[in-house]
Design a protein that fits this description.
Helices cover about 35% and strands about 30% of the residues. With about 475 residues, it is of the alpha+beta class. It folds into 3 domains: about 45 residues, no CATH class; about 100 residues; about 260 residues, Neuraminidase (6 Propeller). Helix 2 runs antiparallel to helix 3, helix 2 runs parallel beside helix 4 and helix 3 runs antiparallel to helix 4.
């Protein structure tokens, strides 16, 4: 009797256990289940259940991972769809512009004699821009499409048509020559009129600077790096024959001097295509931020020991002069370690510095180019640490001081001929706040500034006598 009750209790317990586990077992494959066997013994009910569970539990972590992956994929799809909408809009604009360009090419194809070489070159430039835009779209989408491929092919075909049309332009060559001759005569007449109202280049028949033009910003330096904040650029102030159009450039990430680049003309400077490069050997490197090219020679400040240095760009010969007078305690506002400031004008070559005897005021010294020695000296009233920079024009030193973020002020001048000092207020607009090299060039009467890594120049206007 007791044994029968015991069996009944066990059977009920197993049945309850089966009911509790049934939700979890519903996840198991059918082959993991075995049906229970029911037998009777001695008139009593005996229930035997056999259940085989898998080795691992329900993979909840995998389900959560898959949910996260699905969410990320959904976000990525939304981003790509937004990009497609954006590039689709840009493509519509480009297609509209390309249709207009197609019409222009068709018109030129029907009457090529009515167009000159410049028209063809402008079309060729626009086609290259379209080609670059299509390539950019393909790279951005990281794929290609029949529409983009067709657009690229059409641009290529139009380029071939423009090149072919240009070969038919022979009849216009004589007309172009005549027009250029007329333009040249007008330019010569304009130049003669201009010479009547402006001082002659290289002469000093004026009473000083009256105003300075707005800055002309050419471009960032040849290294294409705004971090190259120390250096300078400009033209030779006394060029040798054949190098009248030469430009020079040198810049660094710290106030030092160790290489120069020379460009045959303005176009080569803009193209960053130098015809020669001078790297200073170890032991000949310079320091500071100001140097000039005068008579095909670079003049710069060297250190250890402190001295004036020059490098002949033709012979690559170095010369040095120890300079104990200049103090290494006073420098310009924007320029660390700029103790010797070389400058050149209509009167020759100069160097400006501060001394302990003058208590930090700027001293002007005239350099004898042959002996590389000092001819004469003049002490000014300009306290160098408060000066932004200084330059020489017709034997007169002009000093600047900071105004606001966008403005510098030419505030002081000293005439080495008359020893006359003047205070003035001539605004000098800056492209950016800091600059480290400002010098005047007598061959074109311009100021050249190296402004936070950018080439900047100014036209100088003088007062007439």
């Amino acid at each position: 009797m007791i044994r029968g009750r015991y069996r009944d209790t066990m059977a009920l317990t197993l049945l309850l256990l089966f009911l509790i586990l049934s939700p979890a077992l519903a996840w198991l494959p059918v082959e993991d289940w075995e049906s229970g066997n029911v037998t009777t013994s001695g008139g009593g009910l005996e229930c035997v259940c056999s259940v085989f569970l898998p080795d691992s539990s329900f993979p909840a972590d995998r389900v959560q991972h898959m949910q996260q992956v699905a969410t990320n994929l959904r976000l990525e799809v939304e981003i790509q769809m937004n990009k497609l909408v954006y590039y689709g809009a840009k493509l519509d604009i480009f297609l509209g512009e390309l249709k207009g360009l197609t019409v222009r090419v068709a018109i030129m194809e029907s009457s090529p004699d009515n167009y000159i070489k410049l028209d063809f070159e402008m079309l060729r430039i626009e086609l290259r821009e379209f080609e670059a835009l299509v390539s950019q779209l393909k790279e951005s989408l990281n794929s290609s499409s029949p529409m983009l491929d067709s657009l690229y092919t059409e641009i290529h075909n139009m380029t071939l048509i423009v090149n072919q049309l240009e070969t038919y332009d022979k009849s216009n060559l004589e007309v172009i020559r005549i027009e250029f001759a007329k333009l040249q005569r007008k330019l010569e007449e304009c130049q003669k009129e201009q010479e009547l109202i402006t001082p002659d280049i290289g002469n000093c028949n004026h009473t000083g600077i009256m105003s300075v033009s707005k800055p002309k910003v050419f471009q960032i330096n040849a290294h294409l790096n705004p971090g190259y904040q120390y250096g300078g650029w400009g033209k030779d102030s006394k060029p040798v024959r054949g190098y009248e159009s030469m430009y020079w450039y040198g810049a660094y990430s710290r106030p030092s001097v160790y290489e120069f680049y020379l460009y045959s003309n303005y176009d080569k400077l803009i193209e960053r295509s130098s015809f020669t490069h001078h790297g200073l050997p170890q032991g000949y490197e310079g320091t500071g931020n100001n140097y000039v090219v005068h008579g095909n020679t670079v003049y710069f400040q060297a250190d250890n020991p402190f001295r004036m240095s020059k490098l002949n760009l033709t012979s690559s010969v170095y010369s040095h002069r120890h300079f104990t007078k200049a103090s290494e305690r006073f420098t310009y506002t924007y320029s660390p370690n700029q103790y010797l400031d070389f400058s050149a004008d209509e009167k020759g070559l100069w160097v400006m510095y501060a001394t302990e005897e003058a208590k930090g005021k700027i001293v002007i010294a005239k350099i004898d180019e042959k002996s590389f020695g000092i001819e004469d000296e003049w002490t000014t009233s300009a306290f160098k640490p408060l000066v932004g920079n200084a330059f020489m024009v017709c034997g007169v030193m002009y000093a600047t001081r900071p105004g606001d973020v966008n403005t510098e002020e030419i505030y002081y001048s000293y005439d080495t001929k008359t020893k006359e000092e003047k205070y003035m207020s001539i605004p000098l607009q800056k492209f950016q706040e800091n600059f480290v090299n400002l010098h005047y060039n007598p061959t074109d009467q311009k100021l050249y500034m190296y402004n936070n890594g950018y080439y900047v120049s100014y036209n100088v206007r003088f007062s007439r006598e």
